[in-house]
From TrEMBL:
SMART domains named in the record: ZnF_PMZ
Composition-biased stretches (Basic residues): 590-599
Entry-linked InterPro entries: MULE_transposase_dom, Transposase_MuDR, Znf_PMZ, Znf_SWIM
Residue stretches making up the SWIM-type domain: 465-497
The encoding gene: LOC106766018
PANTHER family: MUTATOR TRANSPOSASE MUDRA PROTEIN, POLYPROTEIN, PUTATIVE-RELATED
Pfam family, one: MULE
Region Disordered: start-end pairs: 590-674
Name of the protein this chain belongs to: Uncharacterized protein LOC106766018
Keywords: Metal-binding, Zinc, Zinc-finger
One function term, GO molecular function aspect: zinc ion binding
Biased composition (Low complexity): 607-625
Length: 674
C-alpha cells in the first residue's frame, strides 16, 4: 500500500517575525493564505503585490523586484490551498509597509487589545510601531479604530434593526417597561426610529419603596452619527446619591419628546393623582412649557445654577448681587426672604423685578413644599449621572442601553452589600448634616412651654423660633422642609436629654436604604440568544452630521470650579465703559460716547492750538502738532477730491504748499514754547 505524503499545515499561532513559508505548506482556505502573507509582509517589512489573484490560484511577487515569488493553488475540490512555488526575498526590511491596511490594523486591535475604545489615535500608532516596526498614518489609525469598534460593539444601523429583538429579550425576563415610538409618514415607507423608553423594574421598585418623591430631569447629547439625545429621570436615594429611574433615547429634544418621556414616566410610577411628585429642571424652555401647559398640577423647581447663569448675563456677576440672590433662594422663612429681596431692590431694581417675575415656589426654599423632605436647589445629581455614563454615550443605542443596564445591575448588588458596613441607624451624609446642626445648637437657649413645645432663643441676636417635637415642626421651616432636625430643634431635644437621631425622618435611615436597593435587576442573554421579534426592522433616524469633530465633554461656565489651568472668559458679563450697561462694550455702544478728555477735545481744533502759542505748553504743542498733521492730510484729501482729471496735479501742489505753511506755523509755535 502506497504511503500518503504529508504536507506541513499552517497554524495562525506560529506566525512570528521569524516565520518562513515552506514549499508544500497547506492553508485551510484562500483567505487564510492571504492573511498569513499579509501578516508576514508586515512583520518583516517586505512589500508584495498580487500578479494573479484568482479563486483557484494565486501568484505573488516582491514589489521591489528582488525575485521573491510564491504561488499557491487549490487542492482538488477542497478549499485547501497549497504552496507550489517558493523563492525567498534577498533585501532588507522597510519601515513603511502598505501591507498594513486599515482592515489589518482593525483586526490587530480587536485581537490583541482590550480597551480599544479608550485608546487614542496616537496610542494606536505607537502600539503598531512598537509591535510591528511599521509606521502608519493618522488617517489609517482613526479609520481602523472605527472599524474595530463596529466589530466589537456593532454598527449603529444594525442595532436599530435589532431594537425590537432587544425589547423582546428584556420582556422575557420581566425586566421592566419598554416602549418604542416609530416614525412612519406613509404605510408604504419603512418605519424609522423615533424614541425608545426604558424603566427597569428594579429601579421602579426601589424608587417607590423608599426614595423621596423628588425627581431630577435632564438631557444630554449622544456622540453618535445619528444625532439622538438621551433624557434621564434621576431620584435621590436615602444616602443623597443619585438613583437612576428612567431613560429615553429620542430623535431630537423638543417639547413633544419631553412630553412623551414624562407621560411614560408618570404612568410607570402611578400617574399624577397617585402621589405628589416634585421635579427639578435645568430651565429648558421646552421642558418648562410642558409643566406649565400640560402638567400644570405637577410641582417643579428650577435649578439655581442655571437660573443664576441667566441672571448673571443680564445683571453681571458682582458678589454683592450674587450673595443677595443666593441668600433669598436659601432663606427658609418668609421674613428672611423679604429682607434679602429688599436689599437687592435697593441695590438693583431691575434685578429685583426680574426675580419677582419668577414664581417663588420654583426657586425659593421658604415657598417649597415640605412633602418630599428635600430642600435641593441644584439639579446636580442628574448631571452627575450624565457624567458617569460618558463612556457609553458614543456607542450605538443597544450597546449604550446595555452598558447602563449592566452598570445599574452591578451598582445595586454592590450597594446592597455595602449597607451593613455603615455604623448607626442614620446614613453617613445625613449624620454629617445633623452633626453640623448639633455643633451650632450651643448658641440657642430652649425654654419649655409645656408638652412638646419649646421657645428657642439665640444667646446674642435674641432671634426666636417655636419648636414642636410632636408635630416635627419649627418656625424656621428647615426641619419641616428637610426632615433632619435643625439647630433649634437639637437644642430642644438636648433639653429633654434625648438623641437627635431619633427625630430624623425615616427617609434617611439604613432601613430605607436597604429597601431602596433590595430589588434585583435581572440579567439577560447575549444577542446570539435573543428571540426574533415579529415587528419590522427599524431604520435609523435621518440626521446630517455637522462638520468638525464632536465634543466629548460638557462646555463649562466661566466661573465653574476647575482644578488647574485658567478660568475661561467665555460667557462672562461684559460691561460698557460708556453707558455702564451689560452685554456690550464701548465699541458697539449705541449711545453717544462721552468725551474722555475735555482738554484734549479743545486742543483738537487747529486754529485754537496755533493761537495759544507759547501759553499752551508742551502738552498743547504736542496736541497741536497732531492736529496740524491731521489738517494737512485733510487739505490734501480735499484738494484731491475737488480736482478733476486734468487738474489733479495742480491741486496736489496747492495742497502741499498749504500744508507746508501750516507746518511752519506749528514749528514756530513750538520754538516759542521752548
Amino acid at each position: 500500500m502506497e504511503n500518503k505524503k504529508h504536507f506541513p499545515r499552517y497554524k495562525a499561532e506560529d506566525m512570528t517575525r521569524g516565520f518562513n513559508f515552506r514549499l508544500g505548506m497547506e492553508f485551510k482556505s484562500l483567505k487564510d493564505f492571504k492573511s498569513a502573507l499579509q501578516e508576514h509582509s508586515v512583520l518583516n517589512g517586505k512589500e508584495v503585490k498580487f500578479v494573479k489573484n484568482g479563486s483557484k490560484r494565486v501568484r505573488v511577487v516582491c514589489k521591489k523586484g528582488c525575485g521573491f515569488l510564491i504561488m499557491a493553488s487549490k487542492v482538488g475540490s477542497s478549499q485547501t490551498f497549497r504552496v507550489k512555488t517558493l523563492v525567498g526575498h534577498n533585501y532588507g526590511r522597510t519601515f513603511g509597509s502598505k501591507s498594513a491596511s486599515v482592515e489589518w490594523i482593525a483586526q490587530v486591535l480587536v485581537d490583541r487589545f482590550v480597551n480599544v475604545a479608550g485608546m487614542t489615535v496616537i496610542q494606536i500608532i505607537d502600539e503598531i510601531k512598537k509591535s510591528y516596526s511599521v509606521g502608519i498614518t493618522y488617517w489609517k489609525a482613526g479609520r481602523a479604530k472605527k472599524i474595530a469598534m463596529d466589530c466589537l460593539v456593532g454598527d449603529g444601523e444594525g442595532q436599530y434593526a435589532r431594537l425590537y429583538d432587544y425589547v423582546v429579550e428584556l420582556l422575557r425576563v420581566k425586566a421592566g417597561t419598554f416602549k418604542i415610538k416609530v416614525n412612519q409618514p406613509q404605510p408604504t415607507l419603512p418605519p424609522r426610529f423615533g424614541s425608545f423608553y426604558m424603566c427597569l423594574e428594579g429601579c421602579k421598585e426601589g424608587f417607590l419603596g423608599s426614595c423621596r418623591p423628588f425627581i431630577g430631569v435632564d438631557g444630554c447629547h449622544l456622540k453618535t452619527s445619528y444625532g439622538v439625545q438621551l433624557l434621564v429621570a434621576v431620584g435621590r436615594d436615602p444616602h443623597d446619591q443619585y438613583f437612576p429611574l428612567a431613560f429615553a433615547v429620542v430623535e431630537t429634544e423638543c417639547k413633544d419628546t419631553r412630553m412623551w418621556f414624562l407621560t411614560q414616566l408618570l404612568d410607570d410610577i402611578g400617574g399624577i393623582d397617585f402621589q405628589r411628585w416634585i421635579f427639578i429642571l435645568d430651565q429648558q424652555k421646552g421642558l418648562m412649557s410642558v409643566f406649565d401647559d400640560i402638567l400644570n398640577g405637577v410641582e417643579h423647581r428650577l435649578c439655581l445654577r442655571h437660573l443664576y447663569n441667566n441672571f448673571k448675563k443680564k445683571f453681571g456677576g458682582e458678589l454683592v448681587i450674587r450673595d443677595l440672590m443666593m441668600g433669598a433662594a436659601k432663606a427658609t422663612y418668609h421674613k428672611e426672604w423679604e429682607k434679602k429681596m429688599g436689599e437687592l431692590k435697593n441695590l438693583n431694581v431691575d434685578a429685583f423685578n426680574w426675580l419677582m417675575d419668577i414664581p417663588t415656589k420654583s426657586w425659593c426654599k421658604h415657598a417649597f413644599s415640605a412633602y418630599p423632605r428635600c430642600d435641593v436647589l441644584i439639579n446636580n445629581l442628574s448631571e452627575s449621572f450624565n457624567s458617569t455614563i460618558l463612556l457609553a454615550r458614543d456607542k450605538p443605542i443597544i450597546t449604550m442601553m446595555e452598558w447602563i443596564r449592566s452598570y445599574l445591575m452591578s451598582r445595586f448588588a454592590s450597594l446592597r452589600e455595602k449597607v451593613d458596613s455603615y455604623p448607626g441607624d442614620v446614613m453617613p451624609k445625613s449624620r454629617k448634616r445633623l452633626d453640623r446642626e448639633v455643633e451650632k445648637s450651643g448658641n440657642w437657649l430652649p425654654v419649655w412651654a409645656g408638652g412638646s413645645q419649646f421657645e428657642v432663643t439665640h444667646g446674642f441676636t435674641m432671634d426666636k423660633f417655636v419648636v414642636d417635637l410632636s408635630n416635627h415642626t419649627c418656625t424656621c421651616y428647615l426641619w419641616d422642609l428637610v426632615g433632619i432636625p435643625c439647630r433649634h430643634v437639637v437644642a430642644a431635644i438636648h433639653y429633654k436629654s434625648e438623641n437627635p437621631e431619633n427625630y430624623v425622618h425615616p427617609y434617611y435611615k439604613k432601613d430605607a436604604y436597604r429597601t431602596c436597593y433590595a430589588p434585583t435587576i435581572s440579567p439577560i442573554n447575549g444577542q446570539q440568544l435573543w428571540p426574533t421579534s415579529d415587528s419590522p426592522q427599524l431604520l435609523p433616524p435621518i440626521y446630517k452630521t455637522p462638520p468638525g469633530r464632536p465634543t466629548k465633554l460638557r462646555r463649562r461656565e466661566a466661573d465653574e470650579y476647575v482644578t488647574h489651568g485658567k478660568l475661561s472668559k467665555t460667557n462672562t458679563a461684559i460691561r460698557c465703559s460708556n453707558c455702564n450697561a451689560f452685554g456690550h462694550n464701548l465699541r458697539t455702544c449705541k449711545k453717544s460716547q462721552k468725551s474722555k478728555n475735555k482738554r484734549g477735545a479743545s486742543a483738537s481744533t487747529p486754529g485754537s492750538a496755533v493761537g495759544r502759542g507759547a501759553c499752551a505748553g508742551r502738552g498743547a504743542s504736542s496736541s497741536t502738532s497732531q492736529a496740524g498733521r491731521g489738517s494737512a492730510r485733510d487739505a490734501e484729501a480735499g484738494a484731491a477730491s475737488t480736482s478733476g482729471v486734468g487738474g489733479s496735479a495742480t491741486m496736489r501742489e496747492g495742497g502741499t504748499r498749504a500744508s507746508s505753511r501750516l507746518a511752519g506755523q506749528i514749528l514756530g509755535s513750538q520754538a516759542s514754547c521752548n
